[in-house]
């Protein structure tokens, strides 16, 4: 682990050991004596590309096995973590592909949310946030990948993104 301080190695090893790939600053607070020290260390780890900032409070640990520093996570899990598991729904071509209505693999993840908008590239995944109403967001089904849940459009609503309708 070239270029990492002793403390940075301790933090990464602790997160890896407990499999806390998605974590908050509070999760690693035990390694620091002050907020300034914590802020500077987190900032250095982001600059060294060992962690990736997902939102104001949450980060993603790039696993040690990612030798080149590039890594990817399942896009639906990534979106769920960015949105803290609430106020969003994954839609458009991603939903159609998930429900096996199309074989096309989307180039981006389209997310409808009340909280943010714009295009972001996080962990080699292009995520486009669209503004949506609470009504649209509430019309979602909760699905599961492994032990992680995410919110996605109903299959019936996803059919509009393919050329045929049952």
Could you please describe the fold and organization of this structure?
With 166 residues, the protein is an alpha+beta fold. The chain has two domains: 6-61; 75-161, no CATH class. Helix content is 29%, strand content 26%. It is built from six helices and nine strands. It has helices at 6-17, 35-47, 75-82, 93-98, 134-138, 155-158, and strands spanning 22-24, 51-53, 58-61, 88-91, 109-113, 118-122, 125-131, 140-145, 148-153. The strands form three sheets. It has a four-stranded mixed β-sheet. The chain has a three-stranded antiparallel β-sheet with strand order 1-3-2. A hairpin with a 2-residue loop joins strand 8 and strand 9 (148-153). The protein is elongated, with a radius of gyration of 18 Å. The model has no long low-confidence stretch (mean pLDDT 88).
Question: Short description, anyone?
Answer:
With 166 residues, the protein is of the alpha+beta class. It is built from six helices and nine strands.
Rg over CA atoms: 18 Å
Main beta sheet? 4 strands, mixed
Distance between the termini: 54 Å
Low-confidence runs (pLDDT<50, min 5 residues)?
A: none
Could you give the count of β-strands?
A: 9
Shape: elongated
What is the element string, with H for helices and E for strands? HEHEEHEHEEEHEEH
What fraction of residues sit in β-strands? 25-35%
Proportion in helices: 25-40%
Number of domains: 2
Structural class: alpha+beta
Mean pLDDT: 88
Strand order of the largest sheet: 4-5-7-6
List the helices and strands and how they pair.
Elements: H1 6-17, E1 22-24, H2 35-47, E2 51-53, E3 58-61, H3 75-82, E4 88-91, H4 93-98, E5 109-113, E6 118-122, E7 125-131, H5 134-138, E8 140-145, E9 148-153, H6 155-158
Parallel strand pairs: 5-7
Antiparallel strand pairs: 1-3, 2-3, 4-5, 6-7, 8-9
């Amino acid at each position: 682990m070239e270029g990492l301080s002793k403390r940075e190695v301790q933090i990464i090893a602790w997160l890896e050991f407990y499999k806390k790939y998605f974590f908050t600053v509070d999760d690693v607070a035990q390694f620091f004596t002050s907020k300034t020290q914590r802020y500077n260390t987190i900032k250095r780890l982001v600059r060294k590309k060992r962690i990736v900032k997902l939102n104001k409070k949450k980060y993603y640990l790039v696993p040690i096995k990612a030798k080149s520093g590039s890594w990817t996570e399942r896009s639906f899990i990534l979106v769920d973590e960015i949105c803290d598991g609430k106020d969003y729904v994954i839609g458009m071509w991603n939903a159609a592909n998930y429900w096996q209505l199309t074989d096309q693999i989307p180039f981006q993840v389209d997310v409808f949310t009340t909280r943010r908008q714009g295009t972001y590239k996080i962990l080699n995944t292009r995520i486009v946030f669209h503004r949506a109403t609470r009504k649209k967001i509430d019309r979602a089904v909760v699905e599961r990948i492994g032990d992680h849940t995410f919110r996605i459009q109903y299959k019936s609503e996803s059919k509009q993104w393919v050329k045929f309708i049952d």
